[in-house]
Write a structure and sequence with these properties.
single chain, about 240 residues, Arc Repressor Mutant, subunit A, Glutaredoxin, 9 helices, iron, NuoE_N, iron-sulfur
């Protein structure tokens, strides 16, 4: 396993409280109305309101680009929870960010298989190329990077994701070119899934349970993922009867 990234927490980085104080002054009435409308739709899907906390955290992240102090308070109010309960959940999961992410959030898998296939080198070169570390965004707000423990796509290692869409079989050079294309507005197509990349905020909205209509676009499995199935069919193998 690779050593932790020393740039993950810059020396002069503002605290989470400072980020919230400077970037959020409360939701505007029209934003609050829209968020409440979406939140009520999401909450209505669950037998107990508090069960909707995870999707509601994605919802407020889709508004701010991270889970802000206002977002914590909004979720608490909508679900009848204390703010402490909401913060305890949002800070437990790495998918909820504590400071603004970029328009394109780029994740590099550095878990075992991806690491030995080149993931560590991709991370090192990409981080140096972009000039930011783990969960940091570029000054222009275009790109943020994250060291991911697993993308669940070992058969395509080393793998990267952009706003949770797959970019398979990467190299240091292809990773840097991908980020350069994103910064230049070229929007390269993912290897699998929809051909169009959404933004980080749009991806968060989808994860909240509000679909964008692209779930069925493109292949979800391909290449190595299907080899076992092909061999089974060729040999007439079937799963044991229940």
């Amino acid at each position: 396993m690779s050593a932790p990234d020393e740039r993950a927490v810059p020396v002069n980085a503002p605290s989470d409280e400072e980020v919230s104080a400077t970037m959020n002054k409360g939701y505007a009435p029209e934003v609050r109305e829209r968020l409440e409308r979406d939140a009520k739709e999401i909450i209505g899907r669950y037998p107990r309101p508090r069960s909707a906390l995870l999707p509601l955290l994605h919802l407020v992240q889709s508004e701010d680009g991270y889970v802000s102090d206002d977002g914590h308070e909004f979720c608490a109010e909508m679900l009848g929870l204390s703010k402490a309960e909401v913060v305890g959940v949002s800070t437990f999961y790495t998918m909820y960010k504590r400071r603004p992410m970029g328009q394109y959030h780029v994740g590099v898998c550095i878990n075992t298989l991806c690491a030995v296939m080149g993931g560590d080198q991709i991370w090192d070169e990409l981080s140096e190329h972009v000039g930011v570390g783990h969960d940091e965004a570029t000054p222009d707000g275009k790109i943020s990077l994250e060291r991911l423990e697993c993308n669940a796509a070992c058969d395509f290692a080393p793998v990267m994701m952009v706003n949770w869409e797959f970019f398979d079989n990467q190299t240091p050079d292809s990773a840097k070119q991908l980020v350069d294309d994103l910064r230049d507005g070229k929007e390269p197509s993912p290897t699998r899934g929809p051909k169009k990349l959404c933004t980080f905020k749009e991806a968060s909205r989808v994860l909240s349970g509000l679909p964008d209509g692209l779930a069925g676009d493109g292949p979800s499995a391909a290449g190595p993922s299907l080899e076992g199935l092909k061999i089974a069919k060729a040999n007439g193998w079937k799963a044991p009867e229940a």
